[in-house]
Amino acid sequence: MRKKLCCECGKKLTKDEVALAQKLIDVDTEEFYCIQCMAEYFGCEVDDLKIKISEFKEQGCTLFL
């Protein structure tokens, strides 16, 4: 599997960033964002998204395995 890149800044993405895009945008999305660009996209803080990642992991969301 090739590395995914942020569609805004071109940064290589972590698996959590890919999973978050799939969870918040669409599981079949082709537009992936790094956590900084995703925060801008949604108009929130990076820390808010980090909290959501933790919550989704605690809920057992399989995208974050």
Helical element count?
3
What structural class do you assign from the helix and strand content? mainly alpha
Task: Assign a percent range to the helix content.
Answer: 40-55%
* Overall mean confidence score, pLDDT: 95
Proportion of beta-strand residues: under 5%
- N-to-C CA distance: 16 Å
SSE order in H/E notation? HHH
Rg over CA atoms: 11 Å
Number of strands: 0
- Multimer state: single chain
Any low-confidence stretches, pLDDT <50, length ≥5?
none
CA-based shape: globular
Largest sheet: none
Brief write-up:
The protein is mainly α and 65 residues long. It has helices at 15-24, 35-42, 46-58. Helix 2 (35-42) crosses helix 3 (46-58).
Set down the secondary structure blueprint.
Blueprint: H1 15-24, H2 35-42, H3 46-58
Helix pairs in contact: 2-3
Describe the structure.
With 65 residues, this protein is mainly α. Helices cover 48% and strands 0% of the residues. The protein contains three helices and no strands. It has helices at residues 15-24, 35-42, 46-58. Helix 2 packs across helix 3. It is globular, with a radius of gyration of 11 Å. The two termini are 16 Å apart. The mean pLDDT is 95.
